Amino acid sequence: MNKRNPISVDSDWTFELIAEYDREIGALAEGFQLDTYPNQIEVIRSEQMMDAYASIGMPVGYNHWSFGKQFVNVERNYQRGLMGLAYEIVINSNPCISYLMEENTMTMQALVIAHACYGHNSFFKGNYLFRTWTDATAIIDYLLFARNYVRQCEERYGVQEVEKILDSCHALMNYGVDRYKRPYPVSAEEEKRRQAERAEYVQRNLNDLWRTLPQAQKVDCDDVPEFPGEPQENLLYFVEKNAPLLEPWQREVVRIVRKIAQYFYPQRQTQVMNEGWASFWHYTLLNQLYDNGRVTDGFMMEFLASHSAVLFQPGFDHPGYSGMNPYALGFAIYSDLRRICEDPTAEDREWFPDIAGGDWLETVHAAMRDFKDESFVQQFLSPKVMRDFRLFGILDDDEDQEIEVSAIHDSGGYRRVRELLAGQYNLGDREPNIQVVRVAVRGDRSLTLRHTRHARKPLAENTADVLKHLHRLWGFPVHLESTWDDAVVSTSSCPAAEVA
Amino acid sequence: MSYIIDRRLNARNKSTVNRQRFLERYKKHIKKAVADAVDSRSITDMERGEEVTIPADDVSEPVFQHGQGGRRGVVHPGNKEFVAGDRIPRPSGGGGGGGGGEASDSGEGSDDFVFQLSQDEFLEFLFDDLALPNMTKQHLKGNASFKYERAGFSTDGVPAKLSVLRTLKSAKARRRALSGEPKRLLRAARQQLCEAQEDGNELLAWRLKDEIAKLEKRLQRLPFLDTTDLRYNLHLKRPLPTSQAVMFCLMDVSGSMDQQIKDMAKRFYLLLYMFLKRHYERTDIVFIRHHTVAKEVDEQEFFYSRETGGTVVSSALKLMQEIMASRYSADEWNIYGAQASDGDNWNDDSPVCRKLLEESLLPQVQHFSYVEITKRNHQALWREYEALAAKFPETFAQRHIQEVGDIFGVFRDLFQRREAA
């Protein structure tokens, strides 16, 4: 072992020390081929951290009561000691902004630098979803544009009016993303330049869709093509482009919410991978730092204590259990990948013939780059990790009196458990599949949505409330039909249909 | 390459706007919580925040979600004894059962949304829509105290206020303006004189010399300082709105007033005091208690000592009048009176009270409120005061309180913001 030559020995941090640690960790990270955006490390106080929390991590955001609600909630929980604040928040932007809390000790700051500035940062830059769907260089500008635009609307049309539109958009936010089409990158300048043009253009084209002037020659009603031609999954996009009664500024607000939803879409799909990746690297980097003799034993003790607190996975019967801990699962999978490469067993050779005994660094990088949570679990969850977590699958069928243990961590059940767990991270399974199927162009202009049930799961009871929001945006009746096996099981409407 | 930035000094309350919007949106709930708090709180701790609970349904932000039911597979960690194919009774609710994951599937639990209102916000909501009667009137008529303020410069004034700098400035400007023309002519004339002398044109030179002499004389006549140059500092007298208030608490402590009635009265005084404190820089309180004789006392004695005996209300009013005359002149103070009683009074005394109020007190005070805390019928005092209320609708008000819960309502009622006449 090298002779100890620690960077610092006590727990107080200074800006010089942060810079020093950052330099050391950065050098190590480079050795591990972590490709990152430049880092912008901002030291903030706990109140500012609460602000950052409340604005769902957006460094600049438009004003809305729901962020206030969030803030009030965080503040209360924090003051009562129900929750600790996260040690860091990191923003997918270029340069990559990470917030460090003033209250952290030097060890925690180093942990956060390794975790956020090199872990998350390299994930943002490397993962295919982020590369495809977000534009890190433009996001801050765009958020600024959004904030100013919303404020201008508030000045011109009143806070209440804007709030109503935002409420409705937020309700549909998860249905404001394109899942398959690459959107073009958001850029504030371009937005501003084209916004006026777009407003006018859209308004003009709408009138075409809703033309009410008599046609020159009579058109047979059956000839009218169905609109939309194909089911549309992006409800907000559909509303923005086709809602008959929205003012141009309202369309723009819909667009803003849609763009922000799109920006956060990859984050929702890569929680396990992202947190696992960052945890794996803070663990690896800080251990390397220790091996190089740059940190003290005390530093490592404190680091390991908080590392294991974050990565604790309570069992299903533990009072603190609330599902799988994404940090723990992701960390376990990445660590196990390294083990499979470095020290493969016969089982690993059978399950992972192409990577067992390979280059671990290349393997984990590939696992970070080309997957999302669902495929990541499906591909890399090894029997050893399943055993370590003692995973078991439960089948809960409402047609059955009892629930059934469908598979456990044994040779007969590995594949089944893995499949089940992967499904749990599939956004398509987690969120109801709802699409726009029909607009009564010639009739009452009503909008029809179709919910295709997955595994017979019905919609929650608050669906009617969501429809109210959609109704507000659309301006005409909205119907929702819930289908199972191509048969309509139930329908709901807003305004509620009169009982015939 | 990393940049390290210290943002600790940046503005903290980035979320203030959002917080305010949230409060605004749930005003109805918060107001109710505040009103309930006023009724239930112990009387000494009105000035702190309050926990507000809003039903979860009202603050929820609905999104499309899966409901209960259907066929779902969930993976849990921490298996101990299960093997594939085990059948377990469905656990009820969430908890630590095997089906714990299901509950989280349907979104947030149904817990109510609870948060803490800060002290300022609490008072804000408490006194929302309330206004002090006659505030504006006092501002206009409260011209007994003045403040002199600089108000620029004027062309007339007393010599003591002469502004030398300004005066010399305008003198210089005047001299410049008036001397421009002759100076220009003088320069031209001198030039011509030189030329004429060189040419040997004696006649022209002589005429030019004459002109130069005239111009020089004209320039000399220009005064260094003229009366039009004088500038004086101008001070204006500005009426100063009195920003101090005194609150007279008058209470009957005769045998018929029991501790419960006093408690109710105390709450009323407390509300009034907090309300005044928000409006005035300084708020004094004078406690006057009375049975057959009135006495100025401190707070402790006011609320907690018991006396027996008859009741002569006018004694308290007289004392209030005396204290006003000696310590709180109506010119400098905004005077508020609040009287609480169970309505008992010597029958002969009630007309005296009315006369006292009508003639000497009401013209001087901003507002005088009388609350009668009783479950019995009204007596002579109430009826006498009724006549007063009709005559002084702006400054006098009386209300009847029967239970603790009435107090805040009565208070609101008394100080409800009125439409500007």
Widest sheet, order of strands of chain B:
10-9-8-11-12-13
CATH superfamily of the largest domain in chain B: von Willebrand factor, type A domain
Instruction: Supply the number of structural domains of chain B.
Output: 3
The total strand number of chain B stands at 13
Rg of chain B is: 40 Å
DSSP summary: helix tally of chain B = 14
Content of β-strand of chain A: 5-15%
Main sheet characteristics of chain A: 4 strands, mixed
Q: At CATH's second level, what is the architecture of the largest domain in chain B? A: 3-Layer(aba) Sandwich
Proportion of residues in helical segments of chain A: 40-55%
Helical region count of chain A? 20
**Per DSSP, what share of the residues of chain B sits in E-state strands of 2 or more residues?**
15-25%
Give the % helix of chain B: 40-55%
Extended strand count of chain A: 9
Distance between termini of chain A?
A: 84 Å
Which stretches of chain A are low in confidence, meaning pLDDT under 50 for 5 or more residues running?
A: none
CATH fold-level assignment of the largest domain in chain B: Rossmann fold
CATH uppermost class of the largest domain in chain B: Alpha Beta
Oligomer: heterodimer
Sheet bearing the most strands of chain B, described?
A: 6 strands, mixed
Low-confidence parts of chain B, pLDDT < 50 over ≥5 residues?
A: 94-109, 139-143
Topology:
The complex is a heterodimer of chains A (500) and B (421).
Chain A: H1 15-31, E1 39-44, H2 46-54, H3 65-79, E2 88-91, E3 96-101, H4 106-126, H5 128-133, H6 139-157, H7 159-171, H8 188-209, H9 235-242, H10 248-269, H11 271-291, H12 297-310, H13 326-342, H14 346-351, H15 360-369, H16 373-380, H17 383-389, E4 392-397, E5 402-408, H18 414-424, H19 427-430, E6 433-439, E7 447-452, H20 463-474, E8 478-484, E9 487-494
Parallel strand pairs in A: 1-3, 7-8
Antiparallel strand pairs in A: 2-3, 4-5, 6-7, 8-9
Helix pairs in contact in A: 1-4, 1-11, 2-3, 4-11, 6-7, 6-8, 6-10, 7-10, 7-20, 8-10, 9-10, 11-13, 13-15, 16-18
Chain B: E1 2-6, H1 16-25, H2 27-40, E2 50-54, H3 56-59, E3 71-76, E4 87-89, H4 100-105, E5 113-117, H5 119-126, H6 135-141, E6 146-154, H7 164-199, H8 202-221, E7 232-239, E8 244-252, H9 259-279, E9 282-290, E10 294-297, H10 299-304, H11 313-326, E11 334-341, H12 349-361, E12 367-373, H13 380-391, E13 396-401, H14 406-415
Parallel strand pairs in B: 8-9, 8-11, 11-12, 12-13
Antiparallel strand pairs in B: 2-5, 6-7, 9-10
